Amino acid sequence: MTRISTHVTCEYLDESGIFLYKITSASFKELRCWQQSVVHQVRTWNSTVPLLLIYDLTQRGVSIPYSVLNNYNIFNVGVTPDGRQEIDRLLRENRSLSIRLAILVPESVSGEISKRLVAEPETHRSISYRVFMKLDEAINWLLQAPAAVGNAENAVGGLLTQRETDILKLVMEGRSNRDIANVLTLSVGTVKWHLQRIYRKLDVQTRTQAIVKARQYKF
Predict the structure, then answer these.
(1) Burial (CB count <10 Å: 0-12, 13-18, 19+), residue 184
(2) Are the folds of 2-143 and 156-216 the same?
């Protein structure tokens, strides 16, 4: 086990090849130390095999601060928003690199986290994510043969959930966020949140870029 900082450790599970990061205090200082360790690991990883990670957020008082920092999106290999940007840059530079990340949350998790995250996995061009409440289930999922993750050759629809697909179709019709919210009976804030997930999955930055990519791959 390697101690990264006072409240962050990284344990290598020899038999499975999984790196288990555990945090016991979600202060910004601790998260930055954790971020730096993960970014270095991704930068130096042998891309011939997937990098298997578990982020253990089950310690009391950890999951909520961590989620708030990430705008309730805990699917973040880079740990902090800055770290995510750096990981995304590294993945663009190394298209053969792939990562599987399991997030452990406490069974008491509720509110915004559970509403937004626990029900479904997320996909990214080079990353597979999923939330668990039990360590053995997280390990079993990580060791499964990885499903194909989205890349430039995949159909856009294969990357998105049904809700995201519905929203992207309405975006392509020229609908505003308010219109989409009314059609799908959602809040405008929820529509914006889904759009950010869509942009990240499609590796784009704007509404226009998302439409162009969707049309390019005959969505």
Answers:
(1) middle
(2) no
The number of angstroms, rounded, from the C-alpha of 22 to the middle of its chain's C-alpha atoms is 17
Fold exhibited by the domain 156-216: Arc Repressor Mutant, subunit A (1.10.10)
Give per-residue pLDDT as tens, 67-90.
888 777 777 889 988 898 898 888
Q: Is 0.70 topped by the overall pTM?
A: no
The domain ranges of the chain are: 2-143, 156-216
200: left (phi over 0), alpha (psi -120 to 50) or beta: alpha
Tell me how crowded residue 170 is: count the other CB atoms within 10 A of its CB: 18
Residue at 61: amino acid letter: G
CA distance 88 to 189: 24
For residue 179, which phi and psi values (nearest 5 degrees)? -60, -45
Q: How confident is the model at residue 153 (pLDDT cuts 50, 70, 90)?
A: very low
Q: Residue 203: which residues within 8 A CB-CB, separation 6 or more?
A: 92, 125, 213
CATH number among 1.10.8, 3.30.750, 2.60.40, 3.30.230, domain 2-143: 3.30.750
DSSP string, 87-131: HHHHHHH-TT--EEEEEE--TT--HHHIIIIITS-EE-SSEEEEE
